[in-house]
Write a structure and sequence with these properties.
- The strands form two sheets. Strands 1-2-3 form a three-stranded mixed β-sheet, sandwiched between helices. Strands 4-5-6 form a three-stranded mixed β-sheet.
- The N and C termini lie far apart (44 Å).
- Helix 3 crosses helix 5 and helix 6 packs antiparallel against helix 7.
- The protein has seven helices and six strands.
- By secondary structure, it is an alpha/beta fold.
- The protein folds into two domains: 101 residues, GMP Synthetase, Chain A, domain 3; 69 residues, 2-Layer Sandwich (Alpha-Beta Plaits), CATH 3.30.70.
- The longest helix is centred in the first third of the chain and has 16 residues.
- The model has no long low-confidence stretch (mean pLDDT 87).
- Helix 7 links the parallel strand 5 and strand 6.
Length: 170
């Protein structure tokens, strides 16, 4: 797996001055280090994880979102998401695998899966801030597979988006 930390530091658990500096500056968090170590352990059983480029991990509620490159998404999701489930079992959270690169719409589609997005609009507020309005197809379900407050928090922390979520039934 590729990260901004040195492989030796990840495997040994003792950080060199360069990696320690990245931790102090906030380029990487304790959660990121914990996830990197867990993925490194999974890598021994699943060589496809060697192609993953890890960027960031964020926790919100019972979900942990991982930002990886496109090849990383394919590696995690290719086996019917067994690797994502295995990682989730080890960290004690449900895991969402999200694409680091790409556009805002692709990020939101990954985040709102299994819902389909009808449209995304930008709302400019009088105070100069903006919100992203996401309109989902269908009615609001009674038993929701996603906690929308968690989704809003993940979008804010990962991409700086303030979301407004609505449903529209055609």
């Amino acid at each position: 797996m590729k990260t901004i930390l040195d492989n030796f530091c990840v495997k040994s658990g003792i950080f060199c001055t360069r990696c320690e500096e990245k931790l102090k500056k906030g380029q990487i968090t304790d959660l990121d280090v914990r996830v990197i170590r867990t993925i490194t352990e999974l890598e021994k059983e699943n060589p496809s994880l060697q192609q993953v480029t890890f960027h960031k991990a964020v926790e919100a509620g019972d979900i942990m979102a991982l930002m990886v490159d496109r090849r990383g998404m394919e590696a995690f999701l290719s086996s019917g998401a067994k690797l994502a489930k295995s990682l989730g079992d080890r960290v004690g959270k449900r895991v969402r695998i999200l694409n680091f690169g790409g556009d805002e719409r692709g990020f939101l589609e990954d985040l709102f899966s299994p819902f389909s997005i009808l449209t995304i609009n930008t709302i400019w507020l009088p105070d100069g801030s903006r919100e992203t309005k996401v309109i989902l197809n269908g009615r609001r379900p009674r038993r929701n597979p996603l906690d929308f407050e968690v989704v809003k928090k993940l979008a804010r922390e990962l991409k700086g988006l303030t979301l407004r979520i609505e449903f529209e039934d055609y």
